[in-house]
Here is the input.
Amino acid sequence: ELEHDGEEEQNVYDKYACWCEKTSAAKAKAIDDAKELVDTLAEKVRESKGLAATLAGKLATVHASLAQAVEDQQTATKAREAEREAFLKEDEKLADAIDQVTKAGGELDSPAAKAKLLAIASKLKATSRSPPVAALQTLESSAPLAVKQAKGIVADMKETFEGNRAANQKVEAEKVRLYKELMLAKGKEIDQARKLAREYEEEVAGARKTAARTIESREDTLEQIAADEKFFADTVESCKEKASDHTEQVKLRQAELDGVYEAIKVLESPEAREVLTAATSNFVQVSMSSQNSRASALEALRAQAPRSQLASTVLAMVQSGVSFQDVQEKIDDMLKVLKQKEEQDVKDKDECVAKTNTNIRKADTLTAAVGRIQKRLDGARQLEADIEAAIETQQAKEEEQQDLISDAETDREEASRRYESDLKDDEAAVKLLGKAIKAMEHTPALLQQRGSRALVLKANSVVELLKHIQGTLEKEIEQEKKQEDDDVEEYEKQEADNKATLEAIQQRKSDLSKDLSETRSDAESEEQDLTNEEDRKSKVATLLEDIKPGCDWLLSNYDKRREQRQEETEGLYTAKEILSGSVSPSAAGFLQK
Here is the structure.
């Protein structure tokens, strides 16, 4: 029976020892891997922080370059505006001078001039409410008088003025070209700087978020390492204690078996039989009370032995001739070991229950956290889709607004070309009329000298008609200029409004793009957090699986082991009392029942 119990207990211990070995090895490897991960994460934190600092420096440089480019644009624009204003003033003076010399050197004796006068007369008859009919008829029926002027000096002056004006216009055109090239280059530089700044800002934010997430992961890993190291230390200590207890139990059982085997060997030897036979017939009892006491104790212990393996050990020791005092001291040692086992089992049970409950609560907490993060991630992905749709809408609005601006610009250019053409015709007509008037002003005096009064009246009538036509055309020109100025002002206002609307659309699209980038970054961060929490949840589940075999074995055998220890304890106390003589054999038998 002792050997069978020993084999059964050895099998149970072997399973527990196997669990200890596998669990300790797996946990030690997990700790080593986690420490390597901590070093890797620490290096990644340093890299992320270093990258963020480097990018922040580059961003500051880009911002400085951007500010300088904008300042260069503003300075160049102010200088160009001042040069343009000076050019326009000088050009206006030269235009007036050219107009004056042109008027002075004009003549009206060409067929083209006559045809122009007739066209003006017809236009005036059609548009004027009370035209001077007689004068118009005279103008239509009479060939215009030509007055030839000395044109040499006037032509030289005109050529000089026109040359100066053309040279100024060429210089101005070159300045405009250079200014446009500068503005285009600075515009590209500003656009590139802004794009680069946005990229650096996103990269800086990404590096900082990566560093923050990595720090959090490192802290989580350190926390897990601490928990794993505690579990590992507790497991190793518990396994050592179990091994020590098992070793002691094996020694006790072996001592018990050795005692039993030795007693059997002694009692079954020929010498023992001869001694016992002689003792029954010839033995002179020196101390009858002592012999009776040992016999009584043996009888009581035999009655107690079936209840307790350790009592059987005590019986074997008594049978082998060990003194009662030594046996009682050994019993005290056995009782101490049983008490220690009881305390250790209680401690192990409490630790198993506490660890299991703690990790179950952690698992529940992490499950809830995973659910919350998943919900936030779904919200971020939905927001990302909404922002993308909004960007597409703004893109369509931008294209529509650009088409509107382009169409308005085309209409304005066409209107401007028509205005320039009409203005050119009207100004040419006014100029021609001026020449005609100047030529006709000397005619009445010549006719007066010749005594032709009727012709004088006709000549005066023609001059008045020409002046009336000239004045009418000049008013029309002023009205056309005013109307053109009003149209240009309205176009510029509308253009400014359209461009402001376009800029607002583009700004909104840019803001949405930034929001999209931030939302995507947030979604990536949520995905990383989700992965981290799921990893932590998996580690907790693994820890529960690791402690489950040992705890299950301990909890399922706890009551049985406790009952066995109680039986062993009671058996040892009874044996001790038997040896001390405080319990009779009959009482020991009663206790057995």
